[in-house]
Write a structure and sequence with these properties.
The chain is mainly alpha-helical. The protein has helices at residues 5-40, 44-63, 69-90.
Length: 91
């Protein structure tokens, strides 16, 4: 354990940030999983609704620096391609 008061504070802050980041990353994983599941079930409207929700979750996580902004963009792009493929098949 840290001996200096400032080091104790920094340690507490790092634990709080780690918990916040973990929560944000978990939300991202769940949102992505939901979209992929809808795509796999060929649920066009459900996938489109979940995609917009996932976009919000990804943007928030990237804004909080829980994930890198380019990783968020890459995930969103790949999800959108998958949802568009389902839309094209059903049309």
């Amino acid at each position: 354990m840290a001996n200096h008061k400032s080091a104790v504070k920094r340690h507490k802050q790092s634990l709080n940030r780690a918990a916040r980041n973990k929560s944000a990353r978990t939300k991202v994983k769940n949102a992505v999983k939901a979209v992929r599941s809808a795509v796999q079930n060929k649920d066009k409207t459900g996938a489109e609704n979940l995609l917009s929700a996932a976009a919000s979750v990804l943007a928030k996580a990237a804004g909080k620096k829980a994930i890198h902004r380019r990783k968020a963009a890459r995930k969103l792009s790949r999800l959108a391609r998958a949802v568009n493929a389902v839309s094209a098949q059903s049309a």
